[in-house]
Design a protein that fits this description.
Beta-galactosidase, Chain A, domain 5, 4 domains, nine-stranded antiparallel sheet
């Protein structure tokens, strides 16, 4: 089956990554070049060799010290783990000892993080410090489309490897595996261990023994991603098409992937699906939009899946997220992986068939390590899976030397014409303290943010229960999934609360449940001035009455009058009129 083949392919890929052989040249006579500096690309730089691009090259430029343009040359190599990969051979020097390579082949550095150096051609210097250059990480991207038949060229899957300086991940689509692998690198840029091995995927059938259902069910019916549908029957009518885009920050290596998977069912719901039972695919009325973000130098991969109703109907989701852990290098035994699940004390290993009940609270964290490994052991590493909304159970489907696989069951409802979201963070590090710190970051980020803004010319504040929001100072706060949040608006003196907009409506207290990020706007207006009756009052009494009415004292004119000195005999505007706050009230005062 496809999911078994994925694991075999991943194991083969891991062996290739961990056993990369550098080129060795025989030393030549000492060259006149005593040092060099590569200035292009910048330090660091992160590049992707994109299989859909016409060219997969990058530019290199720099200068040498002591070089003779008339005869000296340099080899550009990328150094890692005590080895080097030859990028460009016998590059001639130009004026001032400069050198450049307009189109160096990225294919020679696939899946490597390494340091570029220009060394005298044909040499293998024992001291590399005089030859400076940037750290680069080179990833790879390829598309997988149907070849031939009525659906020829339709995209069903992809592959993307994203390297950073101390860690990396590679990815395929939701139905292909999700996170295909996680990698940790030591200080020499050697990949020493593979951590996650196939995670956050929804396969066409459960891994391991007898499969009874798809890992994705919608409204009680087995449902399939474009990758799964393409593997069942690439010639079927209604085959869904995957859409995909990505962006890598060239300076940090931070990655963002955007993937859209229309979800389908077979015309015949029998399981397992076959080409005959799936001669035609029909929409389930749900599409998943997946966003993957990789940052923290490759130590966290964030996965967000937004299931949206495309037929304006409500839909029930039953998801078995597939997660396989490896946590060793070219040698090791994944049966010795131990887990600390939420609600369970301590770590324990597991066998295929084990089911672990999980508490209803979220976010939840599953800690992962190799039994008996020392903290900081670079041959194993440690990790965690953080999820943002309640999960019912984790069921171990297959536990072998190659991988420890469990499904994480979650359910949810897609509201009619709307969407619901599931989020995960996959954390990897050599040390427990590093994992713990990243888990705290992830747990905070996976809470649902309620953000408040204020509108109108009036003033006031908004507070929350439970606490966290006191706006204007703290106008946003993250709450655990399902938390009931009440917002209260209180107008300042001279203002009034005019109502909510956004996630709440009306003028009463705002009550919402934190199942997604929410934005709320509170509108405060200035109270109008209702002009008081000032005639007959003393000037002092009139001024006080004006301030209490939220108006201002305007021009005061003294006139001869039979009224007592200092008494208001006329005003403008007249009393009872509603005017803008702080409108100036003119007074005519008797001088006797």
């Amino acid at each position: 089956m496809a999911w078994a083949g994925i694991r075999l392919a991943a194991a083969t890929a891991l062996a290739g990554v961990l056993v990369v052989t550098g080129l060795v040249d025989s030393p030549a006579a000492r060259a006149a070049i005593t040092g060099s500096q590569i200035t292009t690309p910048s330090n660091p730089s992160f590049l992707i060799a994109d299989g859909d691009a016409k060219t997969q090259t990058f530019a290199i430029a720099g200068t040498t010290s002591g070089g003779n343009p008339s005869g000296d040359k340099v080899d550009v190599r990328c150094y890692y783990a005590g080895k080097s990969a030859l990028v460009a051979k016998s590059v001639a020097l130009g004026p001032g000892g400069s050198f450049s390579v307009a189109a160096a082949n990225l294919g020679k550095l696939l899946h490597l993080t390494c340091r570029l150096r220009a060394v005298p051609a044909g040499s293998a210097p024992s001291k590399l410090a005089p030859y400076s250059g940037p750290v680069i990480g080179v990833g790879e991207r390829n598309s997988s489309a149907v070849g031939g038949g009525p659906n020829n060229g339709k995209l069903t899957d992809y592959y993307l490897y994203a390297a950073q300086q101390t860690a990396a991940f590679d990815y395929v689509s939701l139905g292909g595996c999700g996170i295909k692998d996680g990698y940790l690198m030591d200080s020499t840029y050697a990949v020493t261990t593979s951590t996650f091995f196939c995670d956050a995927g929804l396969f066409r059938g459960e891994a391991g023994g007898a499969s009874t259902r798809s890992e994705l069910r919608i409204d009680g019916t087995n449902a399939y991603t474009p990758e799964a549908a393409g593997s069942i029957n690439p010639n079927a009518s209604g085959l869904p098409v995957l859409s995909f885009s990505y962006k890598v920050d060239a300076r940090t290596g931070n990655l963002a992937i955007h993937e859209t998977d229309p979800l389908v069912r077979c015309a015949d719901p029998a399981f397992p699906p076959t080409a005959a039972s799936c001669a035609a695919f029909a929409s389930t009325g749900v599409t998943d939009t997946r966003t993957i973000t990789q940052n923290h130098d490759g130590h966290i991969s964030w996965v967000s899946d937004v299931f949206a109703s495309t037929d304006r109907k409500a839909h029930a989701l039953d998801l078995l997220w597939d997660n396989t852990q490896h946590f060793h290098g070219s040698k090791g035994d994944s049966t010795q992986i131990e887990y600390a699940f939420p609600g369970h004390s301590g770590y324990s290993t597991h066998l295929g068939g084990d089911a672990v009940a999980l508490p209803g609270a979220a976010p939840g964290t599953i800690l992962i390590r190799m039994h008996g490994a020392a903290d900081g052991d670079t041959s194993t590493g440690q990790g965690a899976l953080v999820y943002d909304r309640p999960a019912a159970r984790a069921t171990f489907t297959t536990v072998s030397t190659v991988g420890s696989d469990f499904t994480l069951q979650q359910t949810g409802t897609v509201p009619a014409g709307a969407s619901t979201r599931f989020r995960f963070a996959y954390v990897q590090d050599y040390r427990a303290a590093g994992v713990a710190s990243l888990v705290r970051t992830a747990a905070a980020a996976l809470r649902n943010t309620v953000a408040v803004s204020k509108a109108g010319r009036g003033k006031g504040k908004v507070s929350s229960s439970p606490g966290g929001i006191v706006c204007g100072k703290a106008c946003a706060h993250g709450y655990d999934y399902g938390t009931a949040v009440t917002l209260k608006a209180k107008a300042a003196k001279g203002s009034k609360f005019a109502g909510w907009s956004g996630a709440c409506k009306g003028r009463h207290r705002c009550r919402l449940t934190a199942t997604a990020d929410a934005t709320v706007k509170a509108k405060f207006l200035l109270r109008p001035c209702v002009v008081p009756n000032l005639v007959g009052k003393t000037v002092a009494a009139a001024r006080l009455a004006i301030r209490k009415a939220f108006c201002s004292v305007g021009k005061v004119t003294l006139v001869s009058s039979t009224a007592k000195q200092g008494v208001v005999v006329a005003q403008e505007p007249r009393h009872g009129k509603r005017v803008a706050q702080h409108r100036k009230i003119r007074l005519v005062v008797s001088k006797g």
